[in-house]
């Protein structure tokens, strides 16, 4: 069925064993000085072992002023390249071809990421989402930058990379020169279509003087910048053939710049393969290979893109983080063993936005492949897990993989805990893929599952465990609001579980994630919804892209959002609130309480003096699944 994915392909003269590519995605695993680290190498090595044909290592900057983040690998001198030689050697030994993305952030850097240096750009125009005014490069300085790009590519070839990728997308320096959104020059590098293209063309020309015509250069392009005054797909259809004539070996087709960057790694609530339409259009105007990217997160999507002729290769970035063994599992027919990316943004893009190294909600071993490796336990034990939410199930899986005799207890009939409710709102269905994988993995690992059973002290005594894992979750918090006892007041869980009908005019009290997504769910069912939040904004901790799309959905559904608003009472015909120093009655025929949750952990007092134990997930502290699953993994390794 997936034969197309495993057909050999070529980019220039580079032969690649299959059509599956790891695109460049920043990890922040390099050192503070821009050098390779064991963590960086090991992270990519796992993907190579997993069967990907070509890996394109993340943005490597050509100079320190080009760093848009901390801990970005560098290629600015011959002295810094020795670690790259070790990197390419190990990726080759692991079975993959290896390229590297050569990049400069331009105006999307800041003095904080460049070591105090002022960012540079084609024009002295501040990026819409960045705080620093860039220095406008002189014509002489532009030619110096051309040379820096070419020398970095020379170094890449010298240390064993099979190809390079010029980062001409996402609003970085090359893209800034090409785009009228950011280039307002009137010298030979601006003012006309061909002048704006001169910068990448000069880089290609000088590079080929240094490395010859046979060394493959991939060009990553934002086919549509998705901003007013920026490049569109029609512009890019003119640009692509010019780049092909200049000698690029393949086009890696992305879209967006920083202002529209919420699309660059499309989150859960967006349609799949949002950028494939651009790859399809560019294939019409070039004869070189085209690589499709962005939210191609299942074998079926990847196969469809190739079979439809939309692209020649598929880049599966976050999918390779969620499961580095993805290609091997596809080839061996182990589809139900694939851990699927759910697009949550929490551990990857969310961490990067906070200048932290990446991790992954569904794969907590990322970046710690050796430290968190699942190894056999010295002494197999009888392990009791109480609670089958995502953290409890993960702990049970890892403990069983280590050879322990594991039984997991769940008081509900279904496994999944409150994660099942998180998958109810519109666009959140992919969250169910984690639950399904965990349930099947419990079976594969021989974990005994006891559902529909509430664990008591007697249950624990009868079971006689060697170790107890408490993952009993949390319960909704009911605030002391006057009138809350009225019949038309329900909880968010009641709505999401389908226990009550949604009324026509609903006030949701609480603008945290549960409240906001419950409101979104209700509004999507053609109900009039008002969110009341005492804080200055709703979902303040939600990652940028998911929040952007959530707010767009609220706007489209005409949902009313009242922030800095205090609830005074729930009356017979509505909610009495105070905002801007004035009281106001919000008329409604249903009130939904979504103030938050409190840890539910009644069994710790029972086991504390009798058994070795651990507490994970919301049972210990109400929080995100990212941290809960990571803690579950680490706990299971200690048993």
Q: What layout of secondary structure does this protein have?
A:
Blueprint: E1 9-11, E2 14-16, E3 20-22, H1 38-49, E4 54-61, H2 82-93, E5 97-103, E6 120-121, E7 135-136, H3 139-158, E8 163-168, H4 173-178, H5 193-211, E9 217-222, H6 233-245, E10 250-254, H7 276-283, E11 290-292, H8 299-307, E12 313-315, H9 317-322, H10 326-331, H11 349-353, E13 382-386, H12 390-401, E14 405-410, H13 419-422, H14 431-444, E15 448-451, H15 457-463, E16 467-470, E17 474-476, E18 489-491, H16 492-496, E19 505-509, H17 513-524, E20 528-532, H18 544-556, E21 560-562, E22 566-571, E23 574-579, E24 582-587, E25 590-593, E26 597-599, H19 604-607, E27 613-615, H20 625-638
Helix pairs in contact: 1-2, 3-5, 12-14, 12-20
């Amino acid at each position: 069925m997936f034969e197309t994915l495993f057909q050999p392909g070529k980019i220039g003269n580079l032969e690649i064993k299959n059509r599956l590519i790891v695109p460049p995605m920043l990890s922040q695993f390099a050192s503070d000085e821009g050098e390779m680290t064991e963590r960086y190498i090991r992270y990519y090595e796992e993907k190579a072992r997993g069967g990907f044909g070509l890996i394109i290592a993340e943005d490597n900057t050509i100079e320190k002023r080009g760093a848009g983040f901390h801990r970005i690998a560098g290629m600015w001198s011959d002295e810094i390249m020795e670690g790259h030689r070790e990197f390419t050697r190990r990726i080759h030994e692991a079975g993959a071809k290896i390229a590297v993305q050569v990049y400069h952030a331009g105006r999307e850097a800041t003095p904080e990421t460049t070591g105090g240096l002022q960012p540079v750009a084609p024009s002295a125009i501040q990026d819409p989402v960045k705080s620093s005014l860039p220095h406008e490069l002189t014509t002489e300085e532009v030619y110096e930058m051309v040379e820096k790009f070419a020398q970095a590519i020379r170094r890449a070839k010298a240390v064993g990379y099979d190809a390079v990728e010029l980062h001409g997308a996402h609003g970085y320096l090359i893209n800034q020169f090409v785009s009228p959104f950011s280039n307002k020059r009137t010298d030979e590098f601006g003012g006309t279509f061909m002048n704006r293209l001169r910068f990448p063309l000069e880089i290609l020309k000088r590079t080929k003087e240094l490395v010859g015509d046979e060394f493959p250069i991939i060009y990553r392009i934002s086919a549509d910048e998705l901003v007013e005054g920026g490049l569109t797909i029609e512009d890019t259809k003119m640009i692509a053939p010019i780049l092909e004539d200049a000698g690029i070996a393949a086009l890696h087709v992305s879209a967006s710049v920083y202002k529209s960057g919420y699309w660059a790694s499309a989150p859960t609530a967006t349609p799949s393969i949002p950028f494939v339409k651009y790859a399809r259009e560019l294939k019409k105007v070039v004869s070189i290979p085209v690589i499709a990217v962005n939210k191609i997160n299942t074998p079926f999507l990847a196969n469809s893109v190739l079979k439809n002729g939309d692209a020649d290769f598929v880049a599966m970035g976050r999918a390779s983080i969620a499961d580095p063994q993805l290609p091997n599992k596809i080839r061996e027919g182990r589809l139900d063993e694939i851990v699927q990316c759910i697009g949550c943004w929490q551990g990857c893009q969310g961490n990067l936005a906070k200048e932290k190294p990446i991790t992954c909600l569904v794969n907590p071993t990322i970046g710690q492949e050796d430290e968190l490796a699942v190894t056999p336990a010295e002494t197999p034990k009888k392990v009791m897990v109480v609670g089958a939410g995502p953290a409890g199930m993960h702990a049970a899986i890892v403990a069983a993989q280590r050879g322990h005799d594991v039984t997991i207890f769940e008081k509900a009939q279904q496994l999944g805990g409150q994660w099942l409710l998180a998958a109810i709102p519109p666009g959140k269905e992919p969250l169910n893929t984690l639950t399904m994988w965990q349930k099947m993995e419990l079976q594969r690992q021989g974990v005994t599952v006891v559902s529909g059973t509430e664990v008591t002290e007697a249950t624990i005594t009868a079971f006689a465990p060697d170790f107890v894992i408490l993952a009993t979750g949390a319960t909704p918090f009911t605030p002391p609001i006057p009138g809350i006892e009225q019949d038309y007041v329900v909880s968010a869980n009641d709505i999401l579980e389908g226990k009550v009908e949604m009324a026509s005019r609903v006030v949701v009290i609480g603008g945290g994630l549960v409240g906001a997504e419950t409101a979104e769910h209700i509004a999507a069912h053609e109900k009039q919804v008002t969110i009341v939040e005492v804080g200055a904004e709703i979902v303040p901790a939600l990652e940028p892209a998911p929040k952007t799309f959530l707010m767009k959905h609220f706007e489209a559904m005409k949902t009313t959002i009242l922030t800095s608003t205090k609830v005074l009472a729930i009356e017979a015909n509505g909610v009495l609130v105070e905002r801007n120093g004035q009281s106001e009655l919000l008329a409604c025929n249903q009130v939904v309480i979504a103030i938050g949750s409190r840890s539910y952990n009644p069994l710790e007092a029972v086991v504390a003096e009798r058994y070795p134990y651990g507490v994970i997930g919301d049972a210990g502290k109400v929080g995100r699944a990212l941290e809960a699953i990571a803690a579950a993994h680490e706990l299971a390794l200690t048993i």
